[in-house]
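Supplementary Methods. Inverse-folding protocol.

Structures were first reduced to a discrete structure-token string of length 196. This string, shown here, constituted the complete conditioning input.
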């Protein structure tokens, strides 16, 4: 499939991204670069200087809501990708309302309880919606441990065990590997090639 054919298919697709930190911001930019039609972003946080070591933001965006900063960055990269940005703390009702029209959803939150809530809500209330989640990307190295595990319409990307802490901070290279694998998994699904 040639790139113009890929872009033509993707230009009609809508991807939801829940959380616009390290995973969400990098996956969103990767999808915009290949011509995704629309991104629906949701996050309640603002850009901080401590985010710049792994998230797709810039110094002049510190203090700006992450979804607003990311929408601005994507407009500079791919003006043809529409971005719907929501400054919101997600709960089950908001998840259903924001993402029900999506072709797939990327779960990209840091906190385990948010991940669990989004996954449970999507699986129960948005059945059939492919869901990609990142789990286990803290630290560095150990590339061979990063995998994609599929259960039905749920795709888990990461090593599944590396939780961030003082000794194992989330850093740009490993977060980038996982976020780009998430975006690549999204392409597999959207282009209908995940079973090849």
């Amino acid at each position: 499939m040639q790139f113009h054919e890929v872009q033509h298919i993707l230009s009609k697709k809508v991807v939801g991204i829940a959380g616009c930190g390290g995973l969400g911001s990098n996956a969103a930019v990767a999808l915009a670069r290949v011509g995704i039609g629309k991104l629906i972003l949701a996050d309640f946080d603002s850009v901080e200087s401590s985010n710049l070591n792994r998230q797709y933001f810039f110094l002049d965006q510190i203090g700006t809501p992450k979804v607003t900063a990311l929408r601005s960055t994507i407009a500079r990269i791919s003006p043809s990708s529409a971005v719907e940005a929501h400054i919101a703390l997600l709960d089950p009702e908001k998840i259903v309302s924001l993402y029900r029209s999506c072709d797939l959803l990327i779960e990209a939150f840091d906190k385990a309880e948010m991940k669990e809530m989004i996954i449970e809500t999507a699986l129960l209330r948005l059945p059939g919606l492919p869901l990609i989640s990142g789990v286990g990307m803290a630290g560095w190295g150990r590339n061979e441990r990063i995998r994609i595990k599929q259960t039905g319409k749920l795709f888990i990307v990461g090593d599944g065990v590396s939780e961030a802490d003082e000794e194992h901070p989330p850093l740009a290279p490993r977060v980038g590997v996982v976020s780009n694998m998430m975006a690549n998994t999204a392409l597999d699904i959207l282009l209908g090639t995940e079973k090849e």
